[in-house]
Amino acid sequence: MLAILKKEINSFFASPIGYLVIAIFLLLNSLFLWLFKGEFNILDYGFADLSSFFLLAPWILIFLIPAVTMRSFSDEKKQGTLELLLTKPISHLNIVLGKYFGAFILILIALLPTLLYVYTVYQLGNPVGNLDVGSTLGSYFGLLFLIASYTAIGVFASTLSDNQIVAFITSVFLCFLFYIGFEGIADFTSSNLVDQLGMSSHYKSMSRGVLDTRDIIYFLSITILFLMLTKLNLTKESR
Questions:
Q1: Which of 7, 55, 174, 236 is the most buried (most CB within 10 A)?
Q2: What angle do CA 205, 115, 212 make, to 5 degrees?
Q3: Is the Cβ–Cβ distance between 203 and 138 less than 8 Å?
Q4: Model pTM?
Q5: What is the C-alpha to C-alpha distance for residues 192 and 86, in angstroms, rounded to an integer?
Q6: What is the number of other CB atoms lying within 10 angstroms of the CB of residue 220?
Q7: pLDDT tens digits, 69-110
Q8: Secondary structure, 3-state, 76-108
């Protein structure tokens, strides 16, 4: 697994994709949070608060993570190297985990510089330090679990086709469905059960600084479910 993980990380940074992902994520967030006028602008908001960032980030990641994961298995299929990879003395689960953690770590690297936003807002507070640290930490934890789920969905989508664009569109659709789709259906049907199937309600709960085990179990369940589906697809490919 570690060999595949290292290979994935190296391939990301051997080509422009790794640097582009980090640059685009930081650029888009910075533009919306500090420069563009609108509801996400922190300076216009008037409060020492990072809620704008945590509202915006999931939407950017819906497109960014599929752009990272779309090549995970679809590229292997297209080049004809997937069959070779599956014959190596490594379990299918370890192959999936290697690909998964490679993409997950890249997104985490992109997320790390956003801690500068925390420091900036902390210093801008009046008085200095007037920032709800508990809520900010909870929001970061929620974002980490959201990234974990998005990445698992993206890796799964990449096993469905040898076309990266198809994998990208499928992944965006599934991420969108799980993040906001179920919430929309719940609003239409007035069903709290359907709302609980979506990521948005669990993410918002964690963003309030409350780490409920139900929210953590939900995100872990989604992540494990899609990793198992990915493994199942690989098993079918090897037959």
A1: 174
A2: 20
A3: no
A4: 0.91
A5: 42
A6: 13
A7: 998 888 888 887 777 777 777 888 888 999 999 999 999 999
A8: HHHHCCHHHHHHCCCCHHHHHHHHHHHHHHHHH
> How do residues 117-150 score in pLDDT, each as one tens digit?
888 888 877 777 677 777 888 889 999 999 999 9
Q: Give me the sign of the Cα torsion angle 62, 163, 221, 182.
A: positive
Place of tokens 């969108």: 176
> What's the first-to-final CA gap in the chain, in angstroms?
21
d(CA 38, CA 160): 39
Q: What are the φ and ψ backbone dihedral angles of 158, each rounded to 5 degrees?
A: -70, -15
Question: Would you say 152 and 42 are in contact if contact means Cβ atoms under 8 Å apart?
Answer: no
- Among the listed residues 179, 111, 110, the one whose alpha carbon sits nearest the alpha carbon of residue 149: 179
Give percent of the chain above pLDDT 70: 96
Whole-angstrom Cα distance, residue 207 to residue 139? 4
CA nearest to 175, candidates 214, 215, 226, 103 = 226
Interior CA angle at 134 toward 132 and 140, to 5°? 105
**The two structure tokens encoding residue 14:** 């051997």
Cβ atoms of 163 and 74 closer than 8 Å: yes
3-state class (DSSP) for residue 127: coil
E strands, the chain, in order: none
Are the C-beta atoms of residues 154 and 166 closer than 8 Å to each other? no
Q: What is the pLDDT of residue 216?
A: 92
